[in-house]
Amino acid sequence: MKDLNMSVQFLKGVGPERARILKKIGIETVGDLITYFPFRHEDRSHLKLFAQITPGEEATVLAVVAEHQIIPTRGRRPLLKILLEDGSGKATMVCFNQLYLKDSLPPGTSIVLHGKFERIFRDLQITNFIYEKLTGEADDLIHTKRIVPIYQVASKLNSRFLRTLIKRALDSYLSYLRETLSETILREYNLMPYQQAVYNIHFPSTREKGENARRRLIFEEFFFWELAMALRRRQVKIIDK
Predict the structure, then answer these.
(1) Per the count of CB atoms within 10 A, which of 62, 81, 126, 239 is most buried?
(2) Where in the sequence is the domain holding 69, given as residue range(s)?
């Protein structure tokens, strides 16, 4: 049976070492994980063509791998360059210490790529990037081509891993979260149900849904704070009597 109190150690891809790292940022259980909210979002939903990119600009593009170039370097690992095309022009992914991408991204692979592009001589290049492969119309992208959550992370823990882990946990465990506010309050203040708010604070499909999720969670925090203060004042009055 699925349990929000289960240790994150037992989730796919975690294990004891990563569980220790996650504990440093307050994540010990599955419940902790899916309520570890992002501190901001980046809108990577708008695609650009290579021909439209200004050097120094961060952009998201849809491209196809055309070919690889392996460049020997003196005393270091070979440098991999992945040449991309998108119909409007070409660009190069410069991959330091990432020779494995030669096998992961063979020619003909369609990818969505995000990062900062620079013009080196006549060549449009990107060295610090995040990408996702496209395999079909039902691709569920979480790092690109959408509004992307950005989390506080510990050392030895990268944002891509944490984002992927949270998405998997939401897909499997979101339905186990219980509503904390009454139907009357939800209707009166036009608030999202709790499960929807938690999902949309992580992965909103629109900015409006993200803002509505944030409003619901902030309302809940203040609601229970005020309730706790009211109960405390009542207890003080009883003691005074």
Answers:
(1) 126
(2) 50-133
